[in-house]
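lol ok so funny story. i was supposed to be doing the assay writeup but got distracted and ended up predicting the structure for this chain instead. priorities right. anyway since i did it might as well share w the group, maybe its usefull for someone
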Amino acid sequence: MSRDQALQGYLEEAASWDADRVAQASRAVAVAWRVAAAGWLCAVASALALVLLVPLKRVVPYLIRVDETTGVVDVVPVYTGHAPLGEAVTRYFLTHYITVCERFDYSLAESDYQECGAFNSARLNQMLYARWNSANPQSPLNVHKDGSTETVRIESVSFFKRASGESDLAQVRFALLERQGDGAPERATHWIASIEYRYGKPPDDPRTRGWNPLGFEVLDLGIEPEVLSPAPEAASR
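and the output, tada:
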C-alpha cells in the first residue's frame, strides 16, 4: 500500500512539473508576442513620423549678393510669390534693372543683355532684341563700336498708386554718363523711366533665378529725356 502511495506521489509531482513547464512556455510565448507587438508599434510610429516630416524637408536656395561697388555681401531673401514685399526691395530691383539695362560696356554687354531679359515681360524682350539687333543702326553694339561706354547714375525713385489703390507704377530718374574711348570728357544726359511692374512666380531656370530670385517683372517701360536736348541725344530710348 505504501508503495502505491509513493508511486501516486511521484506521478502527481511529475504532473505538477509538467504543468509548470507548460505554464512557463505559455508565459514565454505571451511575453514574446508582447515584445513583437511593441516592436511593430514602434516601427509603425516611426514610419508615420517620417511621413509627417516629409513635407517639412525641403531645400531652401539662398542667393548671395555682392555689391559691385562696395563689395558688401548680403543674402537676398527667398520669395514664394505670395507675401507682399517692402518698398525698399522694389526700389532695389528698379534701380538694378535700369542700371543693367541702360549701361553699356563691351565686356559686360552679353551678360547685361541676358540679365535684363530676366526681368522683362515677353513683349519687352522682343523690343530688347530689336534694339540690340546688329541690323539696327541704333543698336548699342553699333553706336559704341568706337569703344565708348555708358554708365548709369540713379538719381531718384518715385512710386505711384492707381485709383484702385494698387501700387505697381514707378518713375526712375537717372543720368547716362557717356565716356569716349579716346579719353574725351564725360558727357551726361538725364532721363526719366516710367515703369509698370509686378511680382510673379520666381523663374525655374537656376541662372535666371540667380538674377531675379523674387519674380520681379517689368510689364511696361517708357524712357524719355528729362530735359529736351538737341537730337539725336534727346530721342526716346
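The first strand starts at residue 63 and ends at 66. The radius of gyration is 38 Å.
back to the writeup now i swear
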